[in-house]
Amino acid sequence: MRLSKLFFQSLRDNPADAEVASHQLLLRAGLIRQVTSGIFEFLPLGMRVRQKVEQILREEMNAVDGQEMIMPVVQPAELWQQSGRWYQIGDDLMRMQDRSGRDMCLAMTHEEVIADLVSHSVNSYKQLPVVMYQIQTKFRDELRARGGLLRVREFTMKDAYSFHADFEDLDRYYPRMYEAYFRVFRRAGLDVVAIESDNGMMGGTMAHEFMAISEVGEDTLVLCRNCNYRANRQVATFRKTVVHPGARLPLESVHTPDCATIEDLAKYLDIAEDQTAKAIFLVATMVRSDTVEDVFVFCMIRGDMTLNETKLINAINAASLHPASEAEIRAVGAEPGYGSPVDVDLSHSLLVVDDLVAQSPNLVAGANKVNFHYKNLNYGRDYDGGLVADIVSAETGHSCENCGGELYSLRGVEVGNTFKLGTKYSETMDAYYSDNQGSSHPIVMASYGIGVGRLIACVVEQYHDENGIIWPLSVAPYAVHLISLATAKQTDVQTKAECLYEELKREGLEILYDDRADRAGVKFNDADLIGIPLQLTIGNRGLSQGKVELKVRRTGERHMLNADEVPVALAPFLQAEENLIQDLLARDIPQA
RNA sequence: CGGGGAGUAGCGCAGCUUGGUUAGCGCACAGCGUUUGGGACGCUGGGGUCGAAGGUUCAAAUCCUUUCUCCCCGACCA
Length: 592
Hints:
The chain is α+β, with helices and mostly antiparallel strands. It is built from 16 helices and 31 strands. Strands 3, 7, 8, 9, 10, 11, 12, 21 and 24 form a 9-stranded mixed β-sheet that branches. Strands 16-14-15-17-20 form a 5-stranded mixed β-sheet. The chain has a 5-stranded mixed β-sheet with strand order 28-27-29-30-31, sandwiched between helices. Helix 2 packs antiparallel against helix 6, helix 2 (about 45-65) crosses helix 12 (about 450-460) and helix 6 (about 165-185) runs antiparallel to helix 16. The mean pLDDT is about 95. It binds one RNA strand of 78 nucleotides through strand 8, strand 16, strand 21, strand 24 and helix 12.
């Protein structure tokens, strides 16, 4: 492709509203443009990267028996009502009506439609297992799009769905997809970590997330330094130990002036924060079959820990949570900042006590009176009932539940996930098959997603420097960036550049040919910005000695190649770029 | 939705506090000339409903009200 003809313009300055590196570089290198919040265009250069990624996805999905198909973006409400998600999912689901007033929505994902398809098409165990996938647009009306392609509203996802006669068959298949996922990410140059995750709105029995480790990530991973425990902080567990065991002491009320925070309280009473308990007040929205109800939730957790809202949502089976207002807190007889479950009216509320608080004797907690706390608060004596569950987050420094090793945390971007859905959708969408005895069973289902744009953003996050992007060869828009420095008078250089362009194209190489009339500096800077792995410069200086100059974008190394044997001379450098990916692929795949 | 910030040419910004000619600058863009191996220089030129609506005023980019959009931080996910 001639750069002079390419629909392309680089930006010298970073657009003011782009903060993360991948967003800035993808914009500046002319790969994408934002149309409105969270909705992007992929320009020709960006489209080529996308096609590279999609090709990898196709090859790897086909390799695990996936069959490509395509499903609609606009879907009837009925299917989502049938699965129940029409009611469970909030405003993320973009709803609308067609001209006759029929409720419709934009697909956030395609479980309903494919389960519906399978319910009509699969009748016998002989048709199972079957795996289908698509590379298709999804729309999620996110609260807040951010970070360029990292978090958008309209995006392209590779979503695959597998259907099995029973869980054993799914368990046999699932590891194949898990490994295929590692191959996809590694072929694109990304090193990822697979972790246990929450099932969220997907439901089902088990889920993994594939995380690209990055400071710009929105997720926190909890990992063990000793064993291979890895989980999203939303679900990560840890070993909880009672740090101050002992016999129960009598409850007493103490005056604690100006101790609205745990830190102040511990300091004032000269105790450790792990000897305190704190109350957290939330309102949960509970969605039952056809009712929606707000319930006040009174949580007790140890003072040095933080509430984990995902765990809480799962423990009480709520649809969503939001902080309670002061009025709502006082309505049950509690005092904000000095709350405890003693002598409050919880008849219309839900008490949830973290299991560690339930086990720990003699904690200090609020006395529901400004400037007063209780000492020696004991669950089962001073208050009881409610639900006892793990509702706090694992943090750096906690102990691994499996081995006792030290936990630490990293930030990551979720580039893919896999869900063992079980029979949730097959039952609601009526997807049953007959076994060899003629009896009917729900089909066992799983779904597997990878965000194409997010994957690209993660590649750029991982592969860039201060001058621009440094594409891995496997996803680079072109393999070689040919830069002609010919001036109007240097017709010999011009001619040689044209010949070289044609020759390299004949060799089957993907070439971006900078034939523009700009000065050298402009071209070099654009080349570094775009980030094609190999830059081939042809100018009067080298050509007068029969040479062209090769620069490896990744390392900055320069080599003089004989102008007459460029394709041959180029081969080892292309191979070296290829080898980087092969090295990544050769690594062991960590077990799920 | 809560908190913070910003909307002036394709991009980056100044002007606004203290209203006053024809709204400026750099980059980008077009033409001509000189240049030509790491973002050249000169001359000329095109491009703006100053986010929108309403108001105050002799006069509004500037003051007031309303509204829309975008970005960043917190509750969601590929």
